[in-house]
Amino acid sequence: MTKLVGSFLVLLGAIFLFSAGLGMLRMPDAFTRIQAGTKASTLGNMLVLIGVAFYHPDWCLKLLIVIYFVLLTNPISSHALGRAAHAIRIPMARATETDALRDARETDRSAS
Amino acid sequence: MTNLPISNIVLATGFILVLIGLWGILTHRNILRIIIGFSLIDTGIHIVIVSIGYVTNGTASIIDRALSPSEAPSRSVDPIPSALVVTAIVIGLAVTAVMLAYAIRLYESKKTLSIDAFTESKW
Amino acid sequence: MRRAFNTLVVALFALLFATIAVTYTEQQTLPQLAASYVKLVPQELGAPNVITGILLTYRGFDTLGEVAVLFMVAAGVGLVLGDSTRRRDAVPAKSEAIVPSTELVRNGAAILFPLISIFAAYIIMNGHLSAGGGFQGGAIIASGVMLLLVANPEYLVDHDFLGVTESLAGVLYVLAGIAGLIFAGGFLDSRMLPLGQFGAFFSAGAIPIISVLLGVKVGCELGVIIDRFRG
After folding, report:
1. Which chains, if any, share at least 3 CB pairs under 8 A with chain C?
2. Which of the ends of chain C has fewer CB neighbours closer than 10 A, N or C?
């Protein structure tokens, strides 16, 4: 029974990872691609590890530590990538309406 | 659980990666995508080399609680391909670094990343 | 035209690979050389990890060649990217574009960098007991250096210190090999130090020392290569 639940979770994680790859191909510009790649792949990663925890219950603590590290590093790296992409002024998709970072920088510059 | 032909499956996966990388090198015009294709070929070949060393129902060739020294020659997988791949991975990183350095210099000289702009070596 | 040629080449390669993949039969027993390695490494070298024993003693000369290849690659990248006149011209034009890193990345790096260093040290020192070794630990050190570069854009990597450290590690590695020639069986033989108890931390002759030297060398080299890309 637990193996069935574990297999289902691993399959779900694989579906999320596949959708991350698909999103990276189909999204219009760099910023949306970074978002698709990070969020979906982090969740897929965590689901696969939780599914493995159902298969080997005595690995639970080690797998939790690995999940903690994945949660710690993936968002930080995508944040740094997004900031770098904004700093070198990569063109945004045409459907973009607001650019909060640019507005915040301009108000800072005009206020100082 | 029937005995899956693990070696053949992993071998096929490695070869598929090599084919994807090869197609990427031949098709794309952007230098960075060609470099990614080279990296894919690298990874595919590593997987192929490791899969050749697999012995049926074998385990990793590290002597610990799971594998005692007396039963090691009969139950462990081939350690030589793994040893070769360990160094090959680091060399792959170094070769990718050299290719990227050349890509940076090429971009600075012509201000474009398309490989069609560099026709000096063509006949 | 080009597309047809591409598909033809890929199809031919696919045919060749499919032939190999389908007609390959798994090995049932180890080949003779591998079986003798698996038997000899715990016996003669006292190292539980067979692969590290092979890499550092039985095939130690290949490892020396690879150390030389890495050194050549670092020199090559330094030659292509490290032009000092280029750096002097480029810096004033881009000085206003050095974006400082955000608080999130700085705090994350402050948490992660000690963990990465401890993990790299653990993998290097554990090379002879479980999976690990010099090359893998060196790559992890380089990723730690890259994290520092991302979190702190004004961090200036000291190229002189890294260059001296890397060369010193390489020279000590060759000296360890010559010491193996004098005190033990041959060049890069690790039996010059006592074998110790099987599975203990200080065991397997000179393999931990060689692992540390390799890890330091590879880490410094990859760190210098990564830093060259910043200019």
Report:
1. A, B
2. N
Q: How many CB pairs under 8 A join B and C?
A: 148
Which domains does chain B show, CATH number per domain?
A: 6-56+71-117 (1.10.287.3510)
- Tens of pLDDT, residue by residue over C23-66, are 888 778 788 888 888 888 877 777 788 888 888 888 888 888 88
This complex has an ipTM of 0.82
Checking if the pLDDT of C222 tops 50, the result is yes
Task: Flag if A80 and C105 touch (Cβ within 8 Å).
Answer: yes
Interchain proximity B79–C33, CB inside 8 Å: no
Distance from CA of C176 to the nearest CA of B (A): 20
Distances in whole angstroms, Cα of residue A68 to Cα of each of A78, B31, C190: 16, 36, 39
Q: Quick one: pLDDT at residue C88?
A: 44
Number of domains comprising chain C: 1
Please give the residue range of the domain that contains residue C149.
30-74+102-228
pTM, full prediction = 0.84
Q: Which phi and psi angles does B64 have, rounded to 5°? A: -145, -150
